[in-house]
Amino acid sequence: MANNIIDLKKISVAFDGEQILKELDLTIEDKEFLTLLGPSGCGKTTTLRIIAGFLQPDSGDVIFDGKLINGVPAHKRQVNTIFQRYALFTHLNVFENIAFGLRIQKKKEKEIKETVTEMLSLVNLKGFETRDINTLSGGQQQRVAIARALAVKPRVLLLDEPLGALDLKLRKDMQNELKNIQQRLGITFIYVTHDQEEALSMSDKIVVMNNGVIQQIGTPIDIYNEPENAFVADFIGESNIVDGIMKDDLVCEFSGATFKCLDKGFEKNEPVDVVVRPEDVDVVPFEQGMLKGKVTSVTFKGVHFEIIVDIGGFKWMIQSTDEQFVGDNIGLYIEPDAIHIMKKSEYSGLYGDFSSFSEEFDELSDVNADSEDADDE
Amino acid sequence: MNKNSKGLQRAMTAPFTVWMAIFIIIPIALVLFYAFTDANGSFTLSNILSIWEYKSTYIVSIELAFVATIICLILAYPLAYSISRMKARHQQTMVLLVMLPMWMNFLIRTYAWMTILEDTGLINTLLKSFLTLFGYEFEGFAMINTNGAIVLGMVYNFLPYMILPIYTVLTKIDKSVIEAAKDLGANGFNVFTKVLLPQSVPGIISGITMVFVPAVSTFIISKLLGGGMTYLIGDIIENYFLGNTGEVNYNVGAALSLVLMVLILISMGIMNRFDKDAETSGGGLF
Amino acid sequence: MKHVSRFYNFLVFAFLYSPIVVMIVYSFNGIKSRSVFEGFSLQWYKELFNDAVIMKSLYVSLVIAVLAAVISTVIGTLAAVGINSMKGFKKKMYLSVNNIPMVNPEIVTAVSMMILFVFIISKSNTMEMGFGTLLISHITFCIPYVTLEVLPKIRGMDNNIYNAALDLGCPPAKAFMKVVIPQIKPGIVTGFIMAFTLSLDDFIISYFNSGSTVQTLSVTIFSMTKKPYSPKINALSTLLFVTILVLLVTVNIKQMRADSKKKGAKK
C-alpha cells in the first residue's frame, strides 16, 4: 500500500442536518491525476475541503501517507489548493503572492527568489514579478494561483473547479497545461469539476459522485464505455437509456427487438438498463434496420447531425455524419459491442428519452449548478 | 470555513459583546429602572404619569421637527435629483459640497445663524440701512428667539442628511427605467409620480428618519436660536439631568427619555412599513 | 429647465454656505460686531491662540478622538469579523445591538451612559466624571459606525482568501493579520476616519459625560455661545473649516488619482 497517498475511510459530513457525504471510502494513489466529478451538491467540493483540512468530517478517518491526519489543521498539511476564484492576495504583487508560503516557511531570500522565478517560468509568466494582481487577466490570475500553490512543493495539489471562470478557448489550453505540469512535477492532482468533458480529457482516474455517494471509480474509458448505472451513463456524455431484459448470457431484448451483446453473468430474464451511445448507432435503410423509427428532429452540429428518432414512442438520439430529414422512416443498426448492460439501480427510469431534449435546458441547469456550488461551501 | 477558525472568529466578538453589554444594554436597563422607581429605589408610576405635564412640550417638539422634516424633504429632493443626473465627476464634487458643512462643528453652524438672525444681526442691519436710504423707518424683524428660527436651525443642520440618502437611491435607479417609462408614453409628471417617487421611497424614509430623530430630540438649537423661549423635550431632559435651571431628578429625566425613545421607535416602525425592503435600513429586530 | 434647476441648486448651496461665509468674513473683522465690518484684522486669531481654555480643550478633543478612534476601530473590526460568521437570530441580535446607538436619539444615549457612570461613581468613591468617562462614552458611540463600515468589506471578501493563507502554511492568527486585515483595510480606514471625526465633532455625548474638570472643544464652544459675543469663535470656526476643506480635498484628489490609475492599468 506504499503508493497510496490518501485514504478516506467512512467519511460522513452533514450541514444543518443535511447529509453531504455518506460513509465515503476513497483511495488515492501517489502521482495520479484523479478527478471528482458530479453535479452540484454531490459532495465533491466537500471531499476536497476535508482533504485540505478546511472541514472536519463528522465521522471517518483521513489518512495521509499512512498517517491519520484527522486533527491536523490546514496549515500543517502537505496539500495545497487552487481555489475556485483563485483567492489571490490582491494586496500583494505577483512575486509576493508566490513567495507567500515560502516566507511563512522562513526560507532564505535567495531561495525564495529562485523558487518564484522557477514557478513563474513553469506557468509561463516570466517577467510578471512586480505586476499588480488586479491588472492581470483571469487566465493570468489562474497561473499565479497555480504557481503560488506549487511553490511550497506540495505532495498533493487540490484543484476546485479551477477553470470554471475562464472562457472556453482558454479553458482548453489550461487543461493541457495543467496535465503537462502534473506529469512534469510527478505529484498527485485531485481535481474537482462538474464538466464531464474536462474530466474525461485530463484524468487518470475519475470518481463519479452523486448525493454524497460514489457512483463509480474508473479510468475515463471505463467510465464512458462501462457506466455502472443509469446516473453515470446519463451524466457522462449523451446516452440512450432504455429498459431491457437479459434473455440469456450475450443476448438481450429492448425496444421490441432482440440483440446480441457482450455482457453476461445476469440472471435469466433479469430486467436491466441498456445504454447505447448516440455515436454507436448506424443509420441503415428502413427495411434493414434492427430497430425502425421515424425522424422527428435534425440538428446540424458541425461534426455530425444530431437526429432524434421515434422508436415505438421512445425518442432515441443518434449522431450521424449523414443528413436525414424530418419525417423520414429509417432503420437503425447496433453492433454488439455498442450495447452496454447495467444492473437496475435507484436511478433506473429517471432519465427519460430525448423528446424534451434541449441544449438550452442543459446550459441553464449548468448555470444553476455553478451558483449552487458556491452555496454549498 | 474551518470549525476551528469559526471558533476564532466568534472569540473576536468578545470585546464587542462585553463593551456593548456594559455601556449600551445596562445603561438602557438603568433608564428603564430609574423611570419606574423613586429616589429611594422603590417602584412607582409617578415619573411616567408626570410626563402628562409635558404633553405640550412633546407636541411642540414633534410639530417643529415635523415641519423641519417636511421642509428638508421639499428642499432636498430636487437638488438630489439634479445631482444624480450629472456627470459622475460632477456628482462627486457636488456630494462633497453637500457634505462639507456637515463636517463643521454643529454648534458653530448654529451659532453662525445667531449672528445672521439677531435683532442687530446681519439681515436686520442690511435691511435697515437699505430701507433708510429710501427714507423708511425700520424697527427690524424679530427673527431670533422664535419657533421659526428653531425650524430654520433644524433645516439648516439636518438638510444634508436628507439630500444624501435620496441622492443615493436616485443614482441607483437605472436611466433606462426612466426612458422605458417615457417610451411607454409617460410624461414628465408621470415619470416622477409613477417611477421616480416610488423607487426613491427607501431613500426618502431614511432621510426622514435621519432628520426627524435628531430634530425632535435637540436641545441646542432651541437654546441658541429659540433663546429659551420655547422648551423642547431635549431641554427638559437636559434640565433634569444637569439641573441648569431647576432641580436634578434622574427618575423623571429617565421617564422622559424612555418616552422619547419609545415614540421614535414607534414612528420608525411606522416609517418602515412604507419601505418594502426594510432590510436595507438595518438590523431587523428593531 | 436646466437654468431653473441650476438656479435652484445655487439657492440651496447659498443657504448651506452663507453662515459659513459670514463666519469667515467676520473672523477678520477689526471690531467686535456681528453686523458691521470695519477694517481687516487678525486680532481674533491672535486672541484665539492665546486662549488657554480653548487650546486645552482642543488638545483634549484631539486626544480623545485619537484614542476613541483607535480603540473603537479595533473592537469594531473584530466584531465585524465575528458577526459576519454568525447566522440567524444571533446575527440579527448582534446587528440590532450595534444599531441601538445609531437609532436612539443622541441625548438618550448620552443620559443613559451618564446614569451608569453616576451609578458606578456613587457606589465607589475612587472614580469621578472626567477623561475616563468621556473616553468610554466616545468609544461606545463610535464602535457601531466602524462595525458597519467593515462588515460589508468582509462579506465581499472571498472566504477562500483566508483559507488560501492557511493552505500555504500560515497559522490562523497570522493568516488573519497578514491576509484578512489587508483585504478589508479600506473599510477599516474609513471606519477609523469616521470614528475620529464623529468623536471630534460630538457635543451631546461629551456634554453629559465629561464632568466639570475636562472639556472638549465642543463643550468649550457651547459655553462661549452663552457668554457675550466674541469673534474668537469665528476665528476658530474658520480655522476648523479650512483644515477640513484641505483634508477632504486632498483625500478626494488622491482617491480620484488612484481610481484613474487603476482604470489605466486595466487597459
Summarize the structure.
Chain A has 377 residues and is of the alpha+beta class. Chain A has helices at 44-52, 94-104, 109-122, 138-151, 168-185, 196-202, 220-225, 230-235, 359-375; strands at residues 4-15, 18-29, 33-37, 59-64, 67-68, 79-82, 156-160, 188-193, 205-210, 213-218, 240-248, 251-254, 257-260, 270-276, 281-284, 291-300, 305-311, 314-320, 329-334, 339-343. In chain A, α2 (94-104) crosses α3 and α2 (94-104) packs parallel to α4 (138-151).
Number of helices of chain B: 14
Can you give the mean pLDDT of chain B? 85
Catalogue the unreliable spans of chain B. Answer: 278-286
- Gross CATH architecture of the domain at 55-232 in chain B: Orthogonal Bundle
Strand residue percentage of chain A: 25-35%
CATH topology of the largest domain in chain A: Rossmann fold
- Run of helices and strands of chain B: HHHHHHHHHHHHHH
Oligomer: heterotrimer
Distance between the termini of chain A: 32 Å
Distance between the termini of chain B: 30 Å
How does the overall form of chain A come out from the CA principal axes? elongated
SSE topology sketch:
The complex is a heterotrimer of chains A (377), B (286) and C (267).
Chain A (H helix, E strand, L loop, with lengths): L3 E12 L2 E12 L3 E5 L6 H9 L6 E6 L2 E2 L10 E4 L11 H11 L4 H14 L15 H14 L4 E5 L7 H18 L2 E6 L2 H7 L2 E6 L2 E6 L1 H6 L4 H6 L4 E9 L2 E4 L2 E4 L9 E7 L4 E4 L6 E10 L4 E7 L2 E7 L8 E6 L4 E5 L15 H17 L2
Parallel strand pairs in A: 3-8, 3-9, 6-7, 7-8
Antiparallel strand pairs in A: 1-2, 1-4, 4-5, 9-10, 11-12, 11-14, 12-13, 14-20, 15-19, 16-17, 16-19, 17-18
Chain B lengths: L2 H10 L1 H22 L10 H5 L4 H30 L3 H12 L6 H12 L4 H12 L13 H26 L2 H9 L4 H12 L1 H16 L3 H6 L7 H10 L7 H25 L12
Helix pairs in contact in B: 2-14, 4-8, 4-11, 6-8, 8-11, 9-10, 11-14, 13-14
Chain C lengths: L1 H26 L15 H8 L1 H33 L3 H16 L2 H18 L7 H26 L2 H9 L4 H12 L1 H17 L2 H6 L7 H10 L5 H35 L1
